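Final report, closing paragraph on structural work. Over the funding period we assembled a curated collection of sequence-structure pairs, and we close with a single example.
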Amino acid sequence: MNTDVEKLRSEKLQLKCQLKSLVQNARLNEEKMLRFSEMELLLIGTHSLRDLLKVIITTYRNVFDLDKVSLVLIDQDYELLRFLDETGLQLDQLPGLKLFADSAELEAWFDHDLLPILTHYEAGHESLFSPLDNILQSVALVPLVRQGRLIGSLNLGSHEADRFQESNSTDFLQRLAAIISICFENSLNISRLERVGMTDALTCVYNRRFFEQRLVEIVSNSIRHQYELSCMFLDVDWFKTVNDSQGHQVGDLVLQEVAGIINEYLRAGDMMARYGGEEFVVLLPQTPISDALAVAERIRKKMASHQFNLAEGKTLSLTLSIGVASMCVGDLGHAAIELGRDLVKRADNALLSAKSSGRNKVVSAEEMAEAAGLPIC
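Its predicted structure, as stored:
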């Protein structure tokens, strides 16, 4: 009799413990679901690419108490890199973001079904994460898929070995990944639409309005990090005669080709805009005047030797006049907008000097000031 009573008590205690465990798990799942729902609403309410990336990389890590979160995106045409640069956001400001030019490396991690992978951390995972302060123990690799195509992955890392295991459910992660993929596509489309308003329709480089907006940001960033900043002002010599003799259609084709020639000698972080008519302006961040002059001279030489192909086998030769200046940072009491306008004005004055002294040459604003016995800035 006593044995039966003890057995019943033991079973009752086990059931009580199981019930308590079930209640605790239910509460944990409810809390997890609430956090995921809040995260989903936050993602859906974020429209700009800049804000979306920060929510995914920073907010997600804090909300779910993760040790590492990284976002890998496939950027084969460097479109994302250009969009980030347009917003003034550098990759080093988002250490959790990685851009892969080729999809092969990321595809190698996932099977054809493109399902999340929860496993222990291994050395190969390091390429998916930013530099690690401490070794991770477990990771979740969540593919981002849009229209059946892998576009990136959300990578979660923990110092706890049992945080991510193969036996864990991935329903929440798959749902979140689907929402991130949709939000990412939407933000890209918004960025593309915004870019239309920033771009010169003829040459497909930035227009003057956007250049003036970004000028202040680039100058401010140069001041903050104590970077040198140079500016080139370029003008096609005797361009009016092209329009007069060949017609505006030929003139438009020439300008498109000129923009392409200039762009050949620029880096990803440089910014070129069509300032008006046949004038182009270029900002060269982290570039001293000597390097800017070298770039300008290479562009001038390329233009002088280039043959523009016209109808009926005819060709056309043109030259460029270029003015170059570097930013004056001696008096940081001036606002960024004043320093930027002064930089552009001095490059423009150098261009005018190049045109008035014979064209097809590069003139430095600093050399002009020195020759006139005036202070450079």
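The CA atoms of residues 321 and 359 lie 5 Å apart. The two ends are 103 Å apart (CA to CA). We thank the funder for supporting this effort.
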